TrEMBL record:
The keyword Ribonucleoprotein does not apply. Keywords: Signal. Residues 1-34 form the signal peptide. Residues 21-113 form the Bifunctional inhibitor/plant lipid transfer protein/seed storage helical domain. InterPro entries: Bifun_inhib/LTP/seed_sf, Bifunc_inhib/LTP/seed_store. Pfam families: LTP_2. This is Bifunctional inhibitor/plant lipid transfer protein/seed storage helical domain-containing protein.
């Protein structure tokens, strides 16, 4: 009887490991898929249109903040060339970082994104 109990315990333990592995794979597969160029273009347009008032000194709207939280770094950084970087520098990189963080998104320090490097 004890042998049967131990065998059931081993089976449950093994099943638990497999379920954990399946959950991990299910979480990683969407991240590995990436974002399509069309999705990136939509994200960029949403950020530009909904966050434009920030350029003129206003606080970001709820919609702007949602776009900031939803944005994929691989979509945003390629668009931060010298022209966009000069606009961001005009606002002030530390202020932009503070606004992004105020929207609930963390910004890594000393991170190069397009033509901008975040402060240390």
């Amino acid at each position: 009887m004890e042998m049967l109990f131990k065998k059931k315990q081993r089976i449950h333990k093994m099943l638990g490991k497999w379920v954990g592995m399946l959950i991990l794979v299910a979480m990683l597969v969407p991240m590995a898929h990436g974002v399509t160029p069309s999705e990136c273009k939509t994200e960029k347009n949403n950020l530009v249109n909904n966050c434009r008032p920030v350029i003129f000194g206003r606080d970001p709207s709820a919609v702007c903040c949602q776009n900031v939280r939803d944005a994929h770094i691989e979509c945003v950084c390629p668009y931060l060339g010298p022209k966009a970087a000069s606009v961001i520098r005009g606002i002030g990189v530390p202020r932009v970082v503070k606004l992004i963080e105020g929207c609930g998104r963390s910004v890594p320090r000393n991170y190069k994104c397009g033509s901008i490097t975040t402060p240390p």
